[in-house]
Amino acid sequence: MGVREDIRAAQAQDPAARGAFEVWLTYSGLHAVWAHRVASRLWRARLRLLARVVSQATRSVTGVEIHPAAVIGRRLFIDHGMGVVIGETAVVGDDVHLYHGVTLGGTSTEHVKRHPTIGDRVVIGAGATLLGPIEIGEDSAVGAGAVVLVSAPPRSLLVGVPATPRPRR
Question: Nearest Cα to 127, choosing from 147, 107, 151, 141?
């Protein structure tokens, strides 16, 4: 996982990206992912308070909150960033694209798996909320504003409140 790989992924997914330097300098979603990598290393080293401080400082600067214990795959692209929340037990696959206002939230106060698992190559639209220990299969798409409370198989389209999975064409 590297900065260059992340920048190339952002350029591939965002037609407004005009150059690598601009992406590196101005894309807050990427800044949040890079800071998460630091916080995650601290978390795994059992420097939990320091990891949370890094996470919260990043949230203050970028508007994106990723818990240090969340597992994030390669080339996550958070488009526009503001308001994204990724909870402690969330797992996000490779090549996932999140738009602003996405929440990967929990539904339990127990110390168990309580946040979503997102497969590879999933796109989650602006303002979508995914709650609980659900699984969204690879190559799926979640519509803007959807509230997802159930798991979905690979290549699903999830839209509505509450969202219902259907085959993605």
Answer: 147
